[in-house]
Design goal:
The complex is a heterodimer. Chain A is of the alpha+beta class. Chain A has one domain: Winged helix-like DNA-binding domain superfamily/Winged helix DNA-binding domain (Arc Repressor Mutant, subunit A), CATH 1.10.10. Chain A contains four helices and three strands; from the N terminus they run αβααββα. A three-stranded antiparallel sheet of chain A has the order 1-3-2. The longest helix of chain A has 22 residues, at 79-100. Chain B is mostly helical. In chain B, 78% of the residues lie in helices and 3% in strands. Chain B is built from seven helices and three strands, in the order ααββαβαααα. In chain B, strands 1-2 form a two-stranded antiparallel ribbon. In chain B, α2 runs antiparallel to α7 and α4 (104-132) packs antiparallel against α5. In chain B, 25% of the residues are buried. The chains are: A alpha+beta, B mainly alpha. Chain A binds chain B through residues 1, 3, 11-17, 20-21, 23-36, 39-40, 43-52, 62, 73-74, 76, 89, 92-93, 95-96, 99, and chain B through 1-6, 8-9, 12-13, 15-17, 19-21, 23-24, 26-27, 30-31, 33-35, 37-38, 99-106. β1 of chain A pairs antiparallel with β3 (101-103) of chain B, so a sheet runs across the interface.
Chain lengths: 101, 218
Amino acid sequence: MTDLQLDPVIHVQARLRVVATLAGLASGDQIVFTRLQKVLGMTAGNLSTHLRKLEDVGYVAVEKAFEGRSPVTSVALTSKGRQAFETYTASLEALLKGAVE
Amino acid sequence: MTDPREPDDALDDAEETASPAAALAAIKASQETVRQQTRPSAPAMFAVWGVAFLVAYTALYLGWSEEAQTPQGASMLVLAVCVVGAMVFTGVHIGRRTRGIRGTSARVGAMYGWAWCLCFLFAMVIFGAVGAAGAPPIAMSILTNAVSLLIVSALYMAGGAIWQEWRMFALGAWFAVIGSVAAIVAPPAGYLVQAIAGGGGFLVGAVAARVIERWRSA
């Protein structure tokens, strides 16, 4: 597999699902952590770990705020993250095309 | 973020995606899931409003009084129940689907919701003023109906433009046509036009949207 061309941060099953899901939201949208967890069917700890890795490379922005008295964490794909995801998808398509030809 | 870490954290990086084809399939599946879970269902909403239109306008047709030149009795109650019921369904459904989504689309949705609310309040004022100016009952029957449908038509087309949903735009355009026909035909036959063509239009839209969703997720 020519993995060298693929973004190693995204090219991990669980993180790919996280990024693809965030990219599926309208641009400029954020999703609350607990809702994202529900959509993905992941445990809170697992999702946190992956989000931290994505945040470290600047692909996602995590925002913590208070709504009334309860803390709410919301997550969004950054424009860098969206671009990385698009590049990753394009690379996959190119690889697939190369494999067929 | 939510801590503490759980034991399954350890296995994450080991799980590389198998192949480009599998990765692309995973992307498609994830995006389909998020789309289905966080966006309002067009088939469900079209179906509910289709039934509401069909029942309400049939009731208005049946409740028409030649003498008063307006629908009477229980027909107005049926109309109110249908409209309120469909509105409650719409509100609850959209609220559930978009829970936890913040930002641009929430703001757009709120503005769009307010547009409906303000347009209908404006319409009520028009009806009150025209009635007070002495318009005959038949003219009021035509006007209330036509203005309501004008709002539905315009906002459906606007919604289609905002969300690039051609089905919504097509329904709005269809309402412009049947609203015009209903105004020319005039009540009570005009109500029948709206029950069948209006309610039917929504139901055809619901079936088309369902077929497209199935085809897309296949």
